[in-house]
Amino acid sequence: MTLLQDPTTEVRVPFARTHISGEALDAALRVLSSGWVTTGPETAEFEREFADWVGAEHAVAVSSCTSAIELSLRAMRLPRGSRVLTSTYTFCGAVHAIVHAGLQPVLADVDPVTLMPDAETLTRAAHQAGGVQAMVLVHFAGHPTPVRRLADAVGLPLERVVEDAAHAVGTWVDAEQVGTISGSTCFSFYATKNLPIGEGGMVTTADGELAERLRSLRLHGMSHDAWRRYLPGGSWRYSVDTAGTKANMTDLQSAIGRAQLRHLARWQDRRRSLVALYDEMLSGVAGISLPPRPESGAHAWHLYVVRVEPDYPLRRDELVGALDVAGIGTSVHFIPLHQMPYFREVTGCVPGQFPAADAAFDTVLSLPLHPSLTRMDVQRVCHALIDVRRRHAAQATARLGGSHAPAQRR
Ligand SMILES: *Cc1c(COP(=O)(O)O)cnc(C)c1O
């Protein structure tokens, strides 16, 4: 072991970093030593506080956003094999959820700018499939998608729409906060999401009967949850009348979530100010386009996704490598699902069926964006994008023009 450090070695700017607040650490310890660590009073409180935060009537805590989507679809009690429309440009878990609910996913292409399906791509996919019975809509990167308009376009009532709000805690669609619009909205507390617990999910709904069904489904389909059975006067007796699963949230997670929730508004402010700095520094960089802004409502800024355009001297994958060498972590959201063998098999779609998603995938690049990022980190990322561009543009000019480009060769 040596104490000497290369002075040129800088700390990396990580793509993501999970910040667990001091209060959350205390809360975790409190629950671990309380004698009750699985679903119980902390979860009931977290559900109430989260529902308040999004302005929803009810919230049901579950093990992940993936299980939130699966349970929301199961709770619709559609016939097995019913068709569920969704984006090809999403996380694989959102479509596994459809499959494991016993339903048939139908993929749709996206708008080339928002990277979300629009009325045209959705109605086309629904028509080609011979009609759909439900739909899962994602708010990509935290950018609002017009839920009501899209439900209308496809001819589905809002009770048949599940929102995948894994990126969208804090997103507003026009004057409505995400969590209060469709039949059920599914949130994620995965390690990299805007409200990180590590793992966890939540369904919000205005329908009390649906909430009760979800509470039963998440815990083996039992008629009373374990915690209530152990309350004074509680009964050991229970019944099962539906195919439930094991997807409850523990009190340990809920206590962390409650403590984290107190920081969420501040963290969202922090994301917005980092986004403003990215915008300012990157707006003049040729070949890098900035993420789209919603015309109304509010963006939750889970991801800052730029596009590496043809007039940038490196292709996206080359740029990922160059940034990695410069100590900057990046990511790509998403690999279109129709490019993956399993989803091709399940949906019967063919390569090239979704050209806008394919074209987008080749140019998207997610830059680091999390509340513990400093303004200097953002400046470093932007300077790297500018510097890599300058170096490679000079090389390209030198290759093409040789000594005719002396000004570039310093
Ligand atoms: C992260 C993510 C999910 C899955 O969330 P989990 O809580 O990890 O199950 C679903 N959809 C999208 C769009 C995501 O980014």
Give your account of this protein's structure.
It is a single chain. With 410 residues, the protein is an alpha/beta fold. The chain is built from 13 helices and 12 strands. A 7-stranded mixed sheet has the order 1-9-8-5-4-2-3, with helices on both faces. Helix 4 links the parallel strand 2 and strand 3. Helix 1 runs antiparallel to helix 9 and helix 9 crosses helix 13. The longest helix has 32 residues. The chain binds pyridoxal-5'-phosphate. The site of pyridoxal-5'-phosphate (PLP) has 14 residues, from helix 3 and helix 4.
Order of helices and strands: HHEHEHEHEHEEEEEHHHEEHHHEH
Structural class: alpha/beta
Major beta sheet summary: 7 strands, mixed
DSSP strand (E) fraction? 5-15%
Overall morphology? globular
Return residue spans where pLDDT drops below 50 for at least 5 consecutive residues: 1-8, 402-410
In whole angstroms, the N-to-C terminal distance is 39 Å
Q: What is the mean pLDDT?
A: 94
Bound ions, cofactors and other small molecules, one mention each: pyridoxal-5'-phosphate
The portion of residues assigned to helices is 25-40%
Number of strands: 12
